[in-house]
Design a protein that fits this description.
alpha+beta; 8-stranded mixed beta sheet; two-stranded antiparallel sheet; 10 strands; 37% strand
Length: 197
């Protein structure tokens, strides 16, 4: 009976020590894993792979015309315009590009969503076809009286293709994650005449 109590006590001691070691190791690994690496800085003139899209930033500017690619501006208002070349890398037409570029809160109010238009005919939010590069304009309305920023900071979001998702077993692009940051100078845009289709 005494031998049984000793083996039981020994088992509890080993389990307690093993648990303490496991918690300590997990804590140390968690502390190292919690360290956040800075996002890569993407070159403004480069082609950027976001999984679904190939992006090539073209130019950013502020315009004060009455219209910007068919989007009416408030009287006295300005718009920050980012023009990019986008190529759909998927096998079907899509317009899943609304969250590919996220403007920095220092430049644009995060609650303000951009209008997205095709520059060649001002079609708003069109589906883009596979392997056909298209020039698109992201247009953010700036608050009245806001000064034009010197540069435009963006975060580029990348998604991963999964042949089967966990919920429905269907293919798609999932897990949006920041791919890097991008800073573009605000160049000279069109003068105050209207930019219309």
């Amino acid at each position: 009976m005494l031998e049984g109590a000793r083996s039981w006590l020994k088992a509890w001691a080993v389990a307690g020590i093993g648990t303490a070691v496991a918690i300590a190791v997990a804590g140390v690994l968690g502390a190292f894993g919690a360290r956040h690496e800075p996002l890569p800085v993407l070159a403004p003139a480069s082609q950027i792979d976001t999984g679904e899209w190939l992006l090539r930033p073209l130019k950013a500017y502020v315009t004060a015309g009455k219209y910007t690619y068919g989007m009416p501006l408030k009287p006295g208002g300005k718009a920050l315009v980012l023009e990019v070349e986008m190529t759909n890398r998927t096998a079907k037409s899509t317009k899943d590009y609304f969250d590919v570029l996220q403007a920095s809160p220092a430049t644009v109010d995060p609650a303000t969503k951009p209008f997205i238009v095709l520059t060649r005919d001002s079609t708003m939010s069109p589906e883009l076809h596979p392997s056909m590069p298209e020039r698109m304009a992201y247009v953010w309305q700036l608050p009245n009286g806001a000064a034009a920023p010197a540069s435009f900071d963006l975060t580029v979001i990348r998604k991963t293709y999964k042949p089967r998702d966990n919920l429905y077993g269907l293919p798609g692009w999932f897990n949006p994650m920041p791919a890097g940051t991008l800073t573009l100078p605000i160049g000279a845009g069109p003068d105050s005449t209207d930019i219309q289709p």
